[in-house]
Amino acid sequence: MKYSFLISFILIGFFFTSCKKKADNVFLVNEGTVGFDGNGYTDSFTILTSTIREDSLKTDSLSNNLIGVINDPFFGNYHARSFFQFNLPELGKVISSGTLDSVVLFMQYTSKTAYYGDLNSELSLNVYELNTALSASNAAYSNQNYGYIATPIGSYTGKLKVNDSIKIRDLAKKVTIAPTLAIKLSASFANKLFNANSTDLASQTAFLDLFKGLVIVPNTSPVSGNGAMAAVNMYAAFSKIRVYYNDTMQSDFKVLDDSRRFSQYYVSNQNSEITKQKAAGKKANFDTTFLQSMTGAKTRISIPYLLKIAKNKSISVAKAEIIIRPVAGSYGTTTPLPARLLLLQPHPTTGLNAGIIDALAFEPFYGGAYNATLNGYKFNITRHIQNLFIDYQRYGKDNNNGLFLIIPTDNPIAPSRMMVDTRKKGSNPGIEFKLYYSEL
Q1: d(Cα 87, Cα 371) in Å, to the nearest integer?
Q2: 119 closest CA partner among 229, 233, 225
Q3: 340 domain-assigned
Q4: Overall domain count for the chain
Q5: Nearest in space to 145 (alpha carbons), one of 262, 32, 257
Q6: CB 54, CB 297: distance < 8 Å
Q7: In this predicted model, what pLDDT tens digit does every residue of 130-164 receive, in sequence order?
Q8: Interatomic CA distance for residues 126 and 103, integer angstroms
Q9: Helix or strand holding residue 382 (H, E)
């Protein structure tokens, strides 16, 4: 078999797990076969996959916030509640000399597609006033909570209508605005804002002593297969607390860039298969693994014997990629596949999610977006794999600590989930690791 003939195999994307020089020939072996020319091979590219717990996430700097609850028959109940701090519209502007009409919380939906689950599900949401100030200096994570007054100051029961514009009062007229969730707040809370005095309104600090913020809490337990979550953009034009007074007057309190806001996520009642995998050790291997955003679950991918091929030789990597596919029939209209995935690595000290060098490139190179033709996700990890070989060959360091497959926290924010086909053998494997290299 001549070299030029073998190059044609490379160009059409043939799956090589190793490339060995012998005289003037190049011998290629494919996992699950005995290779060309009768050569055997060692199972150097065993892939181990399992589901593990996802880390808590920093949620105070996300582009948007999630609200809602979903009862997934396999992934369990997952909830999102969001905390918001509001700013004064104007220092010292006292409006209590007028006549109070009402106070309404408006939360503009991020977009018509920024939701997950069944929009026909009816949900119940409660609005509570915080009695604990949101920290001005510390980061806020998805597992954090802040205290709030037990009696709700507003509630909503109905569908998350991310596609429907609404009419609101704006000064003396009715106007139509983008899809927005509107919740009327209680008379007692309305009077608190309306009757704020000049001392309360003298500064943002003084105002936050009076009103520390709100939290939106799902207050429903949807039946299996029901529920929905939507993203709200609290920086949007129509997101605000609006105080209506004197029939035609209004005063708006907004979430601004320096306002604190974050989302809290929690997941319960996951299927026993997920909890079993989370309890398994690092050497465990499963043919189906699970991804769930909002700290639900991620997949650990290990290629434990990767560096064996560089034990007595130098390796130059031409290309390395991983292909991931979903389990057939595990997704649908109300539970679509994630728009993109991320492939990361464990931090060498903390074990938490850390980037790989390939992720610094533009997305078309690194990959991770859903490919309908492939019905899966492809990642280019050439530089990451090459660096592993360099560290091993030059410095004797084994930094092959595996990879983490996750659903991104942001861009987009979506409470997606996915069953990952991680079968390694057979004619139609769900996960593939392709390595093209030369021995120097």
Answers
A1: 43
A2: 229
A3: yes
A4: 2
A5: 262
A6: yes
A7: 999 998 888 899 999 999 999 999 999 999 999 99
A8: 15
A9: helix 382-395
Judge contact between 315 and 94, C-beta under 8 A. Answer: no
Mean pLDDT of 331-357: 94
Which distant-in-sequence residues (6+ apart) come within 8 Å of 14 by Cβ? 28
The model's confidence at residue 312, banded by pLDDT at 50, 70 and 90, is confident
Mean pLDDT for the stretch of residues 384-405? 95
Q: Which positions ≥6 away from 331 have C-beta within 8 Å? A: 337, 418, 419
Chain position carrying tokens 């209680």? 186
Could you tell me if 150 and 132 are in contact, meaning their C-beta atoms sit under 8 angstroms apart? no
Which of residues 207, 225, 259 is at a domain's end?
259
**Spatial contact of 337 and 316, defined as CB atoms under 8 Å apart:** no
Pick the closest to residue 391 from 328, 323, 306, 266 (CA basis): 306
Q: With contact defined as beta carbons under 8 Å apart, do 338 and 324 qualify?
A: no
Q: Residue 245 is inside which H or E element, if any?
A: strand 240-245
**Interstrand relation of 367-371 and 376-380 (parallel, antiparallel or unpaired):** antiparallel
In a domain, 16, yes or no: no
pLDDT of residue 126: 98
Asked whether the beta carbons of 239 and 108 are under 8 A apart, the reply is: yes
DSSP 336: P
Local confidence band at 428 (pLDDT 50, 70, 90 cut-offs): confident
Whether residue 218 sits in one domain with residue 341? no
pTM of this prediction exceeds 0.70: yes
pLDDT digits (tens, 9 = 90+) for 178-204: 999 999 999 999 999 999 999 999 999
**Mean model confidence pLDDT for the chain:** 87
Residue partners of 283: CB distance under 8 A and separation at least 6:
48, 304
Is residue 18 pLDDT above 60, yes or no? Answer: no
What is the per-residue pLDDT for 1?
38
> pLDDT at residue 35 above 80?
no
End-to-end CA distance of the chain: 21
Domain stop point among 227, 259, 291: 259
User: Rg for the chain (alpha carbons), in Å?
Assistant: 27
Claim to verify: residue 254 and residue 349 sit in the same structural domain: no
Contact 401, 348 (CB under 8 A): yes
